[in-house]
Specification:
mainly alpha; single chain; globular
């Protein structure tokens, strides 16, 4: 693991201290800018505690998860060097 990168347990605890809206906003940012893989977000929200925290927002979270490109699509886009 890289130095300075928090472990998942630390990240989960941090999200539990946030308002649910902020967690959903984080997911939106990650989705909008394709800043991580869909699996990373699914791993983040897999725990019952996080799911309970964002339960009122699950419809929106599921929409955001659909917004992630598949790994294959991402590699196709990155492989395209044409202007």
């Amino acid at each position: 693991m890289l130095q300075g990168v928090p472990r998942w347990a630390e990240i989960h605890r941090s999200f539990l201290r946030l308002k649910p809206d902020y967690t959903v906003e984080y997911i939106w940012i990650m989705s909008r800018y394709q800043a991580c893989k869909r699996e990373d977000i699914e791993d983040l929200i897999r725990t019952p505690a996080i799911r309970s925290l964002i339960s009122d927002h699950m419809t929106r979270v599921n929409e955001l998860l659909k917004g992630f490109r598949d790994a294959e699509e991402s590699s196709d886009i990155n492989d395209d060097k044409s202007p």
